[in-house]
Amino acid sequence: MNYYSCICLWGLVILPCLIQAQKNNPYTLENLGIKSKKALEYFVEAEHLAQRRVFEQAIPLYLKAIKTEPQFDRAYAGVANSYFYARQDSMAEIWFEKTLSLNEKKYAIFYSVIGDINYQKGNYQKALENYIKYTKSPNADAKTLEKVNFNKKNCEFALKAIKNPTSQAPQNMGTNINTIYNEYYPSLTIDETQLIFTAQRPRNPTASDIKNQEMTKLKMYDEDFYVSTYKDGQWQKAVNLGPPVNTLENEGSCCFSADGKSVYYVICDKIGCDIFVSDYVNKQWSEPRRLNENINTRYWESTPCISADGNTLYFTSSRPGGKGGYDIWKSTKTPDGDWGPAENLGDSINTPYKEISPFIHPDGKTLYFASEGHPGMGSADLFMSRIKPDGTYSTPINLGYPINTPGSEASIIINRKGDVGYYSLKKPAHEGGDVDLYTFQVPDFAKPIKTSYLKATVINAKTKQPIPNATLNLIDLTQNKTILKKNTDEEGNVLTVLPANQFLGVFIEQKGFLTYSENFQITESTADNPQLLTIPLNPVEIGSVTILKNVFFDFNAYQLLPQSYPELDKLAELLNKNSTLKIELSGHTDDIGEDKFNLTLSQNRANAVKEYLLKKGISADRIQAKGYGKTQPLVPNVSEANRKQNRRTECKILSF
After folding, report:
1. Which long-range contacts (CB under 8 A, 24 or more apart) does 467-470 make?
2. Residue 451: CB atoms within 10 Å
3. Angle at Cα 108 formed by Cα 106 and Cα 113, nearest 5°?
4. 112 near 152, Cβ under 8 Å?
5. For 601-632, what is each residue's pLDDT tens digit?
6. Which residue positions in the chain have pLDDT lower than 50?
7. Number of other residues whose CB lies within 10 A of the CB of residue 613
8. Of the candidates 20, 1, 9, which has an alpha carbon nearest to the alpha carbon of residue 113?
9. Cβ-contact 635, 646 below 8 angstroms
10. Which tens digit of pLDDT belongs to each residue from 305-343?
């Protein structure tokens, strides 16, 4: 619960009591328990000023009443109340304590308020002591007691967390990113070359003069997206992302797709906040499109995060059917490419309090988010949870101190390697309440599974020109399951995440060209190294050859392994689409072993591939199978890496 909630809660508890007393009992010496008429005069004038929220004028009058009537407890409470509403917490605390010393039973609620003041400042021990005193009061009311017990648990957690730090102190990202205004909601491309975030900037030159006036801030400040590029070992000066993404309206939180080609973000108007998407096409951003009614409702939707495969959108919504006012939801794409019904993430993640800013790591298994409902340091803290094999979520774990503080931490992202996090920190009100972006080292217990990525340029093998709109299919070869499908841009570029601990097949197709195939088996130790490739596609013409890199056999055997089926299914599809196409399937070996054995092995392997295609309905007269043994090496057989290249199956076009 944040600072302002504490103020509102205190006001709801104390002021109605005073007002009710005033309605039923006019200001009299008897009712106030005092003797001095002069003290009564000062007090009544101070009360009227306080009710009009002119606290700086009310306080001297309360003090005059106290000087005249030293045991005037209502005047002590008036001073404490005025300092509190004027946000002078240190002075308020002193006067709350003085009031309690006069009448502890009558003003027991002040123990709760003193607890809140110290809780927000991170003085957890003193906050805990005052909360405990309130819980022992016979006059404790149920609503306040619920809040106090909640904060007590957080104080107990915080005291332990401070004694057991989980990380080094987070680092402010500096003046190229942060300003005297607010910066929050970071987003990072998978190759970590661009950081995009939301920033508040004045709409006119005089806005900075009213920076701390909350009621006018929304009108005087504009929320836009800014982007910084990582170059020469540091983040460069952030610049406005510009139209059409940025508009005269407020643009809230954003999340970029893994390849940086789509941005999901929030636009707020007078009615509310909804989630939109814009795509980067022909070197410019498209006009934003509002997502469908499964995502956007008449309630508040914000903080979107798109999964690395582009198929699941996580977001925050205040819609009915959740666990509290703000919950985290997700939606999965349907076969037609639109967004399906939203699903609440459930009790493991959501609480009766606020959960926001979901971030699903590119590993697809680790969820990070901000919460005010799980045990933490105060206000919003950062948490992580693992997605279990059955799709449920593990009990969230607080990222600990000093990542989390008495301030409000939110809008977290973690880089693909899983070792560096970025987040926004709103300092407590007594420290100015500014919001800046920070980085931190991710604790070992909170690290996701490392991921790598493929960044490729697809070109015509003959002309060397880029091939736009070629289709990349990423397939789990072990399960023969398509993980994602995407197209190259107008310059032939494509970028995709490569999850660790999976046997992955990459297939790149374009009409009029032979399919290119590749495979990767990313491990934790190799994930740091991205795959940066130039991929040539051979046109479909007589003599063109492509290597079937995802055709596999056991050592010295010729039975096809199941991981070969996705590659051969695509070859069968090509032959079915081009009914006159005739090919040669050739088997090749390295130079290990006897020549006769290698020749026979290569022939049998070519035959095995042919038999598979025949079972797929391809006519036998369209396929020749030929084994070449070791006679046609691609590279000299001088190392195991070279020999691996030479052990291959090729497809050559004979006629079409």
Report:
1. 467/492, 467/510, 467/513, 467/537, 468/492, 469/510, 470/494, 470/508, 470/509, 470/510, 470/513, 470/537
2. 24
3. 135
4. no
5. 999 999 999 999 999 999 999 999 999 999 99
6. 1-22, 207-218
7. 21
8. 9
9. yes
10. 999 989 999 999 999 999 988 999 999 999 888 999 999
